[in-house]
Each structure stands twice: as C-alpha cells, then as structure tokens.
C-alpha cells in the first residue's frame, strides 16, 4: 500500500489570502487526497471536528499536489513492474493491458511497448487467461496452476480491482514453474529407469541392503551412513523416529548388511500384542503351559530369530515385567519358555525401534533404565518427512510406479499444482501417509488423460499447506454400539481420517494401540 496524503498536510494557514466561506468548498481536515471529488473542484477551507476553519487550499495548489501524487505513484508503479520477480499483468475491465512487468516481457517474449493499451486476448487465448476469468467472475484466485502457452507453466494469484466499489479491472501475478515441471517430468523418466535398473541389480546382487530406503536428503543419508557403519558390528541398535518414517526398513538394512544376513530377521510389534500373550509370543511355551496351549508347545520369536536379528518395534510399549526378561536375554544370552524350567541359550542381535521418548519414560519409571542403556548402544534417529521435502518427488515417483503396476494402470502424470501442494504439506503420517495417498491417487486417476488433479486430493490437503482438519468425533464416527457393524464403522472412520496411522486412530477412538490391533485382527481389517 502507498500512503495517501491527507489535506491537512498540504494546507496553507488561515490569512488574508484565504477564500471567502461562501465561495469555497468546506472539507474536513482528515480527508484524503483521493477522496476529493473533482466534479466541482474549487478552493477549499479545511475544518476540524467542531466545524472551525483550520486552513485552506487553493484550487491550483490542489491540482499541483494531485499531479505530484500521480507522478510519484506512477514512478513507484513502474519501479515495481521493472523489479518484480514474478510476471505481473494489469488489465482494465475491458481486457486492455495497463501494466506489463519486466518479468512478463522475459517470460512471454513480448515487449512492454507492444502489449500495453492492447487487448490481452490479442496475445493469449482468452480461455487460458486467469485475469480475464477473475474480472468476469469477480473472484480472487490463489496459487492456481495454468499453462498459458505450451511450454510455459505458472502458478497464478489473481484478483479483481475496484474503485469506489465499482470494478475497474484485474491484476494477476504469475510464478514461473516451467523448470519445476520439466525437472519433475525428467525425474519421473529417470526414476522409472533407475528403479528398473535397481531391480535388476538387486536380483543379481543381494549385497544392496539399504536400497529400499529412498531419498537423497542430507538428513536421511546421515542416518543411512550411520546404519551402514553400525551394521558391521553386533552392537544393539535403537532406531528412533515418528510413526511411518521407515524404521523397519532401516532395521532390515542393518540385518542384511551384517554377518547375520543369511540368518532369520524376525520382527515383532510390541504395541500389537496384548500384555497377557506377549511373554508366550516372545519366548514361546512348553506343552501344557496354560489352558488352550497348542499341543507340543510353540517356539517364540526369540527362538525363531536364533543366529539372526530380532527387531522389536514400538519397544516403548513393552510391559515392565517383560522388560526384565528381555534384559536377561541381552545380558545372559539365554531365556526360558513359558512353563519351562530349562534355560535355553540363544545367539541373536537386538534391533529396537520406538516413536516415543524413552528417556522421559525412564524418568517416569515407565521404562527400565538398565534395559534402555542395553538397547541404546547406538541410536539412529530417522528424520520425519516434513524435514526432508526434497525426498518427496522421488518417493512420489516410486509409489506411482508401484501402484500403477499393482492396479494395471498407466503411470499417471501429476499436475504441478498437486506437486506444489504435496511439497508444502506437513505429512503427520510421514512416508506411510504419502504411500497411502499415492495409492488413492492412482486408483482415482484415469478420467482426465491420466493426469492427477488437485481435486483428487483429500480435502485436508487441498491448498491448506499442511493444516489438517480436526476430526469432529461426534459427527465423523458413529456412537459406540455393541454391534460389530458399528464398531467396524468406528475403526474404519478413524483409520480413514488418520490416513492409516494406527497410533493416531487409536488415540482418536480413545483406546490403546494394542486394543486397536486386536480389534482389527478380529474383524479382519488388516
């Protein structure tokens, strides 16, 4: 905004030369220069709130001030058009160009002298002009993708311009994203080629343990380098990070890069097994150990991982009483089956993962300090997706190919506006949420020449820059009922609104993660 001069700033003091009140126009001293009507212009006497004269302005002085203000505004206006990074176009209500920035000249190859005072549709298809649509519909547009020419892609902000309540024209500001679109297309082609090549390499060479981890960001590559370094040792590893960042992929990579690669990799989710069953799942049980036990007993996960790696996901959910027994495995390299009296020696490596702050749990007495130090010889923090947006395009292309093959569809093109939105989104569910979203987009694509548009995105992602809508539980999830159908509906609604994030869904439903896992298993919702 440019400051508008008030009349009191240009007034002359009262004196002998002031006009007679009957011959002058009385105007309040706070009136702005732009607010004075020029239809009956004459000398003016300025008055205060009490109607008392405080100064005066001659008609000639007013016109000079008006001309000075116009010249100043015009100079600022021209400087703005010459220096703006984005292409700026200003048209009147009839579509005649009144402003054309230096960036517009460079982008479209049309000099200012040829464009100004000419109809904008002389140079462009009027159907592709957002500024014309803005004038016709009198509607503001923000970050709208447009392709005004075959080789130019832009994001547009456009708005109508009013004077004294009447529409006088419109202005559009265009950000050139042609290079981004070109790079995205090149990335799609290159990524598809690299994944084909990578698949062939992996098939012929099993020594590529970290190839499943995608991303070139410095933060992610630091974690990969640390994982590769620790993999050659037998030290216990704690992988930390939010839900959905790919902690199990790191655990698998560490196992495959270790000397235990030819032995089993056994994963167990500590948050998915009820506490009453956890000991038997982890250590197994002897025949007749409890009512309902399988005849002949059963080996546990520790036994199954013999010689290999046991991955304990969500270890922060491990009950305190079982933490003691796990500590014995780490310290004494032995364990007892449920109902057994014989100590069973075991050789394995422990890799644990958590999305919780174990140090705080130790301070609160919720996690054993001695076990924490045993599993935390080396800690590998995995950065959330919002801290490495440069990895998003590669992940998008990876998932596009995966789900296009799964659903036997051509690999779709993604509208640049969608790419822009996904780069700005905060991804509370991280890679798991992105993968879930791309699967949805692939399924919904195909109705517009295989181009994924903004309207294919869930409402929470459409132009809200990562601000996810808050779920209204009363409106979105049916009230709890004993009937199975209602409970299934509750779970499905929660999972849908949290993009498959089970921890967030459990919190939404007011139950523990273990309870949610059990209900999903019971209702076959895996």
TrEMBL record:
Residues 213-443 form the Sigma-54 factor interaction domain. InterPro entries: AAA+_ATPase (IPR003593), AAA_lid_NorR (IPR058031), Homeodomain-like_sf (IPR009057), HTH_Fis (IPR002197), P-loop_NTPase (IPR027417), PAS (IPR000014), PAS-like_dom_sf (IPR035965), PAS_fold (IPR013767). It comes from the Bacteria. Keywords: ATP-binding, Nucleotide-binding, Transcription, Transcription regulation. Residues 73-142 form the PAS domain. Pfam families: AAA_lid_14 (PF25601), HTH_8 (PF02954), PAS (PF00989), Sigma54_activat (PF00158). One of its GO terms (molecular function) is ATP binding. One of its GO terms (biological process) is regulation of DNA-templated transcription. This is Fis family transcriptional regulator. It comes from Halalkalibacterium halodurans.
């Amino acid at each position: 905004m440019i400051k508008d001069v008030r009349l009191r700033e240009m007034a002359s003091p009262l004196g002998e030369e002031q006009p007679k009140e009957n011959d002058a126009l009385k105007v309040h001293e706070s009136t702005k220069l732009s607010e004075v009507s020029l239809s009956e212009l004459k000398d003016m006497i300025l008055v205060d709130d009490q109607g008392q004269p405080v100064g005066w302005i001659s008609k000639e002085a007013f016109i000079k001030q008006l001309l000075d203000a116009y010249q100043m505004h015009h100079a600022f206006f021209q400087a703005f058009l010459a220096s703006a990074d984005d292409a700026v176009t200003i048209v009147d209500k009839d579509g005649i160009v009144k402003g054309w920035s230096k960036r517009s000249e460079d982008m479209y190859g049309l000099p200012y002298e040829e464009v100004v005072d000419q109809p904008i549709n002389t140079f462009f298809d009027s159907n592709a002009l957002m500024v014309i649509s803005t004038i016709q519909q009198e509607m503001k547009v923000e970050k709208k993708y447009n392709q005004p020419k075959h080789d130019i892609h832009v994001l547009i902000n456009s708005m109508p311009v009013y004077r004294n309540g009447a529409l006088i024209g419109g202005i559009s500001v265009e950000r050139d994203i042609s290079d981004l679109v070109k790079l995205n297309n090149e990335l799609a082609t290159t990524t598809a080629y690299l994944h084909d090549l990578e698949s062939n390499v992996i098939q012929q060479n099993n020594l590529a343990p970290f190839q499943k981890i995608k991303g070139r960001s410095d933060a992610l590559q630091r974690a990969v380098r640390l994982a590769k370094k620790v993999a050659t040792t037998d030290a216990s590893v704690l992988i930390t990070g939010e839900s959905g960042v790919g902690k199990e992929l790191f655990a698998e990579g560490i196992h495959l890069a270790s000397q235990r690669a030819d032995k089993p990799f056994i994963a167990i989710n500590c948050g998915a097994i009820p506490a009453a069953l956890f000991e038997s799942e982890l250590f197994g049980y002897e025949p007749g150990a409890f009512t309902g036990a399988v005849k002949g007993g059963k080996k546990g996960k520790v036994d199954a991982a013999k010689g290999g790696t046991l991955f304990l996901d969500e270890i922060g959910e491990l009950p305190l009483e079982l933490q003691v027994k796990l500590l014995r495995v780490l310290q004494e390299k032995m364990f007892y089956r449920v109902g057994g009296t014989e100590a069973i020696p075991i050789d394995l490596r422990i890799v644990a993962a958590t999305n919780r702050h174990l140090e705080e749990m130790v301070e609160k007495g919720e996690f054993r300090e001695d076990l924490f130090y045993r599993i935390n010889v080396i800690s590998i923090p995995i950065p959330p997706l919002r801290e490495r947006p440069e990895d998003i395009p590669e992940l998008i292309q990876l998932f596009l190919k995966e789900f296009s093959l799964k659903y036997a569809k051509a690999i779709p093109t993604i509208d640049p506006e969608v790419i822009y939105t996904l780069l700005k989104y905060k991804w509370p569910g991280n890679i798991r949420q992105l993968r879930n979203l791309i699967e949805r987009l692939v399924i919904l694509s195909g109705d517009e020449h295989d181009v994924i548009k903004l309207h294919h995105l869930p409402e929470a992602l459409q132009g809200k820059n990562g601000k996810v809508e808050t779920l209204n539980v009363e409106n979105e999830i049916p009230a709890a009922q004993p009937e199975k159908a209602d409970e299934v509906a509750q779970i499905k609604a929660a999972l849908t609104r949290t993009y498959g994030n089970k921890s967030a869904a459990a919190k939404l439903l007011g139950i523990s993660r273990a309870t949610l896992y059990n209900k999903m298993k019971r209702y076959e919702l895996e």
